[in-house]
Amino acid sequence: MYGSDGAGDNAERTAFRKAEKKYKLYYEEHSKSSKKKKQPQQVDLSEVLDPKSISESYNQKGELPPGIVAVNCGFNRPVFRLEDRPGFYFIPGALTVEEQCQWIRASLRKFPQPPNRTNHNAIYGPIRNLFVAAQEGKVLVEEEGSDNCLDSESSASVSNGDAHRWKFYEEDIARSRAKSCKSVSASVLLRKLRWSTLGLQFDWSKRNYDVSLPYNKIPDALCQLAKRMAEPAMPIGEEFRPEAAIVNYFGLGDTLGGHLDDMEADWSKPIVSMSLGCKAIFLLGGKSRQDEPLAMFLRSGDVVLMAGEARECFHGVPRVFTDEENAEVTPLESQFLHIDDHCYLEYIRTSRININIRQVF
Ligand code: OGA
Ligand code: MN
């Protein structure tokens, strides 16, 4: 599902694939002699639905573009749905800037902690304190044997369960070992963090929940938030039960290929999807990849709900805008002013985080 290339048979020919290609980041060809920075190709964004401007014109003039309906649900912000996509809802600016910062911090510092799994587990085993290690300039080094390179000074240790052990070391110590041991800097690993899973652990290789894996419940504050956000898409009188969440991390050029989330038992329950950081383009297709998808911007603080029939619709993220002009992260910049927050700001200026909360059973 990660990286949109090769998504399904005949992928090149489907309407969904065409839209992914249209919005994906490509660079201008330029002559080898040119020393100029490579320039992103211009993309026609005129057909991308803009939740922010929809919300603004609704608030100011009570006007809505054709096909968009405001939902009456006693929520403290306008909630919209699409006339021709039952079960799909969007709530522009659903999270306050403070809430966005809270969940950015948690997504980087807490959510990738064991027993939660990340894309790094397969190679390095569980990694503890990756974010702090990246801040401290540490380097993850593979131990040659179990006894000969152990260092009690190391603040974090990992193991993937077999003979291979990886530990964080100060950069200079790591450098002295680099000749004989494999190593990778924590900041590189942080940049390569693509997902972490909260609550019930999702097994990406089997594309299923693995209930045999140890897990912690979804943090209470995130549960409460998801319940509140899910309300517009819930049957009256029923409460959403968050049991699992997938956190996606996107950097420059990263995409999420068209897919369905079909591993949860009850599709009448919504998936609550929160966007943090850089602006992205989200594609909402139909039940077939042949259906023309709708493109919409998602900004930091926007929430999307997919329930009912919308659960059967292909969707994905072909583009994240990590450049200053288009990322639209200025509100976060003024919130992350404190020196201690610099590391979060530095990350989120060129990244997007998506927290995707699900009721599994
Ligand atoms: C997902 C997903 C959408 C997004 O994780 O299943 O569809 O906005 N994410 O990142
Ligand atoms: Mn999805």
From TrEMBL:
Keyword hit for Transport: no
Positions with a binding annotation for Fe cation: 259, 261, 315
InterPro entries on file: Alkb, AlkB-like, AlkB-like_sf, Oxoglu/Fe-dep_dioxygenase_dom
Names of the cofactor(s): Fe(2+)
Note describing how the cofactor binds: Binds 1 Fe(2+) ion per subunit.
Listed SUPFAM superfamilies: Clavaminate synthase-like
Source species: Theobroma cacao (Cacao)
GO molecular-function terms, A-Z: dioxygenase activity; metal ion binding
Domain Fe2OG dioxygenase: 241-361
Protein name stated in the entry: Alpha-ketoglutarate-dependent dioxygenase alkB
Keyword set, alphabetical order: Dioxygenase, Iron, Metal-binding, Oxidoreductase
Pfam families (alphabetical): 2OG-FeII_Oxy_2
PROSITE patterns assigned to the protein according to its UniProt record, in alphabetical order: FE2OG_OXY
Protein family: Belongs to the alkB family.
